[in-house]
Amino acid sequence: MASKVNNRKIVHRGKVFTLVRENVTLENGTTTDVEFIEHPGATAIIPFIDDTRVVLLKQYRHALKRYIWEIPAGTLDPQEEVISCAKRELIEETGYSADRWHRLGEITPLPGYSNERIHVFLATELQPAEQHLDEDEVIQVQEVGFLKALEMIANGEIKDAKSIAGLFLASAWLKGNKLA
């Protein structure tokens, strides 16, 4: 037994996530209140233009009040399959579709206060498609050398956790595989 939920209250239901408060009894016998975000899950994509270049986004994030570097990503719609979400988000955010997809793994970016899981994919054999940004998305699509993207992590230009994890997962995958 990891924990027993004694009671549960929805504190806030937002557009994307729900804030929940649960009173739980933990395995060690401690009873406490825990607040966390229930999230439907998401996908993140490392799209390779060719053997050396990837697509990154410079996206405005209002919570930070600035633009940050990210890989394409998006939230799962209800009942949507993970790969369908990844394909949809790649087109919507970048204006590219991909013929080949490789699942790289799953990350839990905020396990201390969210159940969100992000499914990470590598996409290759890109073709132009029609970009469909959401109304609230302010995005600049950029082609960047893959090694340059890794340098951007090292020098602090890329700070977004899913992007760092995704690029490192892609780097590890590439050590044993070829893109084509």
Describe this structure in words.
The protein has helices at 82-94, 146-154, 161-176, and strands spanning 3-13, 18-26, 31-38, 42-47, 53-61, 66-70, 73-75, 96-107, 118-128, 139-145. With 180 residues, the protein is an alpha+beta fold. The chain has 2 domains: 3-38, no CATH class; 42-176, Nucleoside Triphosphate Pyrophosphohydrolase (Alpha-Beta Complex). The protein is elongated. The termini are far apart.
- Could you name the CATH topology of the largest domain? Nucleoside Triphosphate Pyrophosphohydrolase
DSSP summary, beta strand count: 10
Categorize the overall geometry. Answer: elongated
Report the average pLDDT across residues: 96
Structural class: alpha+beta
How many structural domains does the protein architecture include?
Answer: 2
Can you identify the CATH superfamily of the largest domain? Nucleoside Triphosphate Pyrophosphohydrolase
Ends distance = 46 Å
Based on the coordinates given, report the CATH architecture of the largest domain. Answer: Alpha-Beta Complex
Query: For the CA atoms, what is the radius of gyration?
Result: 18 Å
Characterize the largest beta sheet: strand count, sense, and whether it forms a barrel: 4 strands, mixed
> For this structure, what is the CATH class of the largest domain?
Alpha Beta
| Widest sheet, order of strands | 7-4-9-8
Unreliable segments of 5+ consecutive residues: none
Helix content class: 10-25%
Q: Report the sheet-strand fraction.
A: over 45%
